[in-house]
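Technical note accompanying the year-one report. For the benefit of new consortium partners, we illustrate the data format agreed upon in the data management plan: each record pairs a sequence with a structure-token string. No post-processing was applied to the example shown here.
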Amino acid sequence: MDLKDWLFWNVDTQIDFVYPRGKLYVQGAEELRPQWKELTMLAKEKVIRVINTADYHYANSAELDASPDFINTFPEHCMAHSRGADYIRETEPEDPVVFDWDKEYLITPELFEEGKHRNFVIRKDAFDVFSGNPLTDTILKQLKPTTVVVYGVTTNVCVDAAVKGLSKKVKNVYVIKDAIKELPNIPLPFENWEKKGVEMITLKELKKMLSKN
């Protein structure tokens, strides 16, 4: 198994979502911190590159509303430069390359050379990282993964959007089913994922796969 073609995809494991004091706390998300820590350490141990996505909003963001419906709009959360937008300590990316959604960058192949950078942060202003940051497609094309492992929050919003986008562009997409958490009142996407060929596995099953390398 060639792990050079693998990519971990950490979705929005930020303080505002994970901690009970967070501005858009996902109930029970804090219970997944041990799994997320294990995934972070596993990526480091196996030298697997990680895309870390992050909500990063300003006051005029389309998804923010003073009277949110908690389906298409939400209260203020993960505001730019706020503590709530930071990652929890279990998933804090080590020495990352950061791509803001509202800035321009010169994307060169050298930036993604093997052994150069392992962590990348893609900040976004939408549920879908592919529409919430115009650089996401370009970054994915530079990394050229054949296998992507997805985990984080929330299952039925931002994780779902990432999985849908990745399933169109990557051969193998795995979702770690004991390392995701959903919001209430929004349908779960599991049946749709299955139709797209996405495979849901446990962290234990992932570790068994990687132990062969």
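Partners are asked to follow this layout when depositing records. The longest helix spans residues 33-45.
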